[in-house]
Amino acid sequence: MKTIITSVFLATISITPAAQAGELWPASGFQQPESALFDVANNRIIVSNIVGNPGEADGNGYLSVLSLDGKIVSRHWTDGMDAPKGSAISGSKLYVADITKVRIVDLASGKLVSTIDVPGAVFLNDVTSDASGKVYVTDMLADAIYRIDGDRPELFVKDAVLASPNGIFAEGGRLIVASWGKGINVTDFSTAVPGGLLSVDLASKAITPLPGAQNFADLDGVVAIGDSIYATAYMTGTLYRYKVGGAPEVVAQFKPGSADIGTDGTRIFVPLMNEGEIAALNFDATSQ
User: Is residue 53 part of a domain?
Assistant: First the structure.
């Protein structure tokens, strides 16, 4: 995600056709879709639409609702946002990262009920929630992760080792973090050193690089399914799978722009920002 000027990437990266193996459906008609979150209680996918510059508070952003068979249920389910990106569910509320704020949406109605200002935030990105309901938000341009308990934000961890943390996924007693990389050029979001996968312990806050999964790509979204971690590389449109003891492997290839993925445990939902689409992949097919 995170392009300020997406045409920069399209001018410098060769376009690769999307992989067909395991693809169930594409859904189109979105405006820079950045995240695709599975809402288990309501059996649907919530999609964030940036609509413009990802760092500009322009009031153009909104959320859509997509069915599990790829049909748009509500195009403008929640309006009144700027550049919404990752989201997570805690209780009856949806938490959405929106530049330097976190928006709270009522899951039942789609109504925007409140906004949390995050002091010190620069570029909030992805969101996840742990088993206790606490919410975690990455700040890509500040090497930081914030924690929100109810409506109270606090700095959870800030460390250069996070290397521009983008995607985040709570699993058991840890956070899995997908880093974009070090030395970001804020004009085109290229990096001096590409990112990788990290683990952050929820109790000790210790940051541990995942073995064999460092400095291989500028990573965006991340989810865990079983013993596999899936992560997208926005710049190349690649979907990777990683298992402990191995190396990241390519399981699907899209055009540049693959962002914050979601999953229902058997399928992976891939936002394609530059194409205005969400692609659904079959987990069984990608895991073979």
Answer: yes
Predicted structure pTM score: 0.91
Domain of 131, in residue numbers: 7-287
The answer to whether residue 1 sits within a structural domain is: no
CATH of the domain at 205: 2.120.10.30
| pLDDT tens-place values along the chain, 288 residues long | 443 333 223 222 222 333 344 889 999 999 999 999 999 999 999 999 999 999 999 999 999 999 999 999 999 999 999 999 999 999 999 999 999 999 999 999 999 999 999 999 999 999 999 999 999 999 999 999 999 998 999 999 999 999 999 999 999 999 999 999 999 998 888 999 999 999 999 999 999 999 999 999 999 999 999 999 999 999 999 999 999 989 999 999 999 999 999 999 999 999 999 999 999 998 664 554
Is 2 a member of any domain? Answer: no
User: In this structure, is residue 27 part of a structural domain?
Assistant: yes
Instruction: Quote the number of domains for the chain.
Output: 1
Those residues whose C-beta lies under 8 Å from the C-beta of residue 225, and which sit 6 or more positions away, are: 263, 265, 266, 268, 283, 287
Instruction: Name, in order, each residue with C-beta under 8 angstroms of 163's C-beta and a sequence gap of 6 or more.
Output: 143, 179, 180, 181, 182, 193, 195, 196, 198
Q: Quick one: tokens of 192?
A: 């001096």
Beta strand pairing call for 207-209 and 219-225:
unpaired
